Amino acid sequence: MTQRIDGVGAAPGLVIGQAVLWRKEQPRVKSRKVENPNREVSRLEEEVLRAKEQLTRLRESARERMGDEEAAIFDAHLAFLDDPAYVGEMKSRILDRRQNAEVICRDVTEEMSQMLASLPDEYMQARADDIRDVGHRLLLLLSGQKPFDPSLIQPGSVVIADELAPSDTAQFPPGIAAMVTARGSKTAHAAIMARTLGIPAVLGLGEDLKRIREGETIIVDGENGSITLHPDPDTLDQSRERIRRKRELWESALKKADQKAVTSDGRRIQVFANIGSPQDVDAALKNGAEGIGLFRTEFLYLENDHWPTEEEQFQAYRQVLESFGDRPVVIRTLDIGGDKDLPYADLPKEENPFLGHRAIRYCLSHPEIFKTQLRALLRAGVHGNLWIMFPMVGNLSEIQQAKSLLEEARKELENQGLHIARNPKTGIMVEVPGAAVIADVLAKEVDFMSIGTNDLTQYTLAADRGNERVASLYDAAHPSVLRLVRQTCDAARREGILVGMCGELAGDPRMTEVLVGLGLDELSMSAGTIPEVKERIRRVQTDEARKLADEVLVQSTPEKVRYLAEKSR
Ligand code: PEP
Ligand code: MG
């Protein structure tokens, strides 16, 4: 009998495929004494070399298929194999204890991963998973076991796994149809990889994963976050029809990606891209981005082991601004704190980091760090159409202080005789519910506002955006979040300023009509969804969209909102 199981939709797309169980081989470790510990150390060294070769190959294949950022995960793995506290510790224990390398490797890996997991710093906690992954590889090599060979997976298969590490997804052969896991949330590494690879993913199925049998046909709906087991012929036909319609829409969308998005009654909605580094510019342009609606500048800070200098920042901003010519590029000032730690910033531990000293709050109390960024922005602004955006604003005073530091930066540069952007637009992210509530007050002080639904949702619904245990409570389509969106749009319209959205909701094609109806002028999203959202906008009729928006705002649950949004398509 047809059986639907709900999980977390982590990457969109609908497919029908055959289940392949990803068998993570468990190393069989037997303890034994060794006669010649020096020979055992050499054996360990040989396998470490072999592990390094494998990881280097994986890094290159990840770089080719997913870009530098994902490939960097393997640098962390390789670094462990050069770390004296890890491999060095194994060698000295083999010599001291005259025990075989497998046992020592298992114990040292376990101890180090436990130690890392117990640290307060989230970055270090994530390294605990990395070291387990490296240790697992090394153990399989030492015990002469063959790891599961992913290259044998047939195209069109749906990979079923308890959990997928980055080193697993990097080994996916081309043509994998989808992935389904027991653990993981929308922000898990596996989810990010799936979105980058364009593979639909449903994660967090828990114990229900065990109901899936090798080789059976399953339907994976990454958009709705569900899988269907034992589909009957009718269900299969309906899914095939949905897939066909989606493909048609997608093909026509792609052909028109470069054209503007105008509703059927002539309202223009601007569709922009979110980027995380200058490397993302190509994909944004190819998919028809009319500008950048959110350039997250954190990458410059997270990639470095020092505060990035004014010059380093200037080069990165300039590159993006030049690529977009006179089209707007919204660059968001530093948004650290919360879940984004910077080892060299020495951020104090906080009980509630998401409610703590993050983003604009941090920048205003570190004016020199902030002004370095503002100076780089003003200088780079000469090379394009710069809009500066402040994150996590909660009150008027923060905007005034940020603008006064911008003014100081401008004067400093002018005194140095440097050429700078004349009047860049300044705006704020609306991602704190309080800011949405007083959007009418804040709108008087800025040129534009952009709604960050990722944070706005977690704060409005009190559901941590990265916590899979409350994932079912976290939905940006909740009427309470949408009411704040409407309120912000109304305030912007009254003040005659532009209002956009750059949270994930903006890139959800199922909600496009509702968003147009709520009054947004601009939507910014990851590049891959731009063509489809543009195509959806072209099918919207503004009056009907407004009626739909009015109707969703009085619903009691996000499910009802989504049902109405879906029905009207
Ligand atoms: C948001 O909060 O919606 C947003 C776009 O910012 P980030 O995801 O970087 O917190
Ligand atoms: Mg945010």
UniProtKB/TrEMBL annotation:
Localisation per UniProt entry: Cytoplasm
Domain PEP-utilising enzyme mobile positions: 153-225
Protein origin, superkingdom: Bacteria
Domain PEP-utilising enzyme C-terminal: 255-541
UniProt keywords, alphabetically: Coiled coil, Cytoplasm, Kinase, Magnesium, Metal-binding, Phosphotransferase system, Sugar transport, Transferase, Transport
Classification via Pfam families: PEP-utilisers_N, PEP-utilizers, PEP-utilizers_C
EC number: 2.7.3.9
Entry annotated with the keyword Protease: no
Cofactor: Mg(2+)
Coiled-coil residues: 34-72
Domain Phosphotransferase system enzyme I N-terminal per the UniProt entry, residue ranges: 7-127
UniProt similarity note: Belongs to the PEP-utilizing enzyme family.
Cited function: General (non sugar-specific) component of the phosphoenolpyruvate-dependent sugar phosphotransferase system (sugar PTS). This major carbohydrate active-transport system catalyzes the phosphorylation of incoming sugar substrates concomitantly with their translocation across the cell membrane. Enzyme I transfers the phosphoryl group from phosphoenolpyruvate (PEP) to the phosphoryl carrier protein (HPr).
Protein name: Phosphoenolpyruvate-protein phosphotransferase
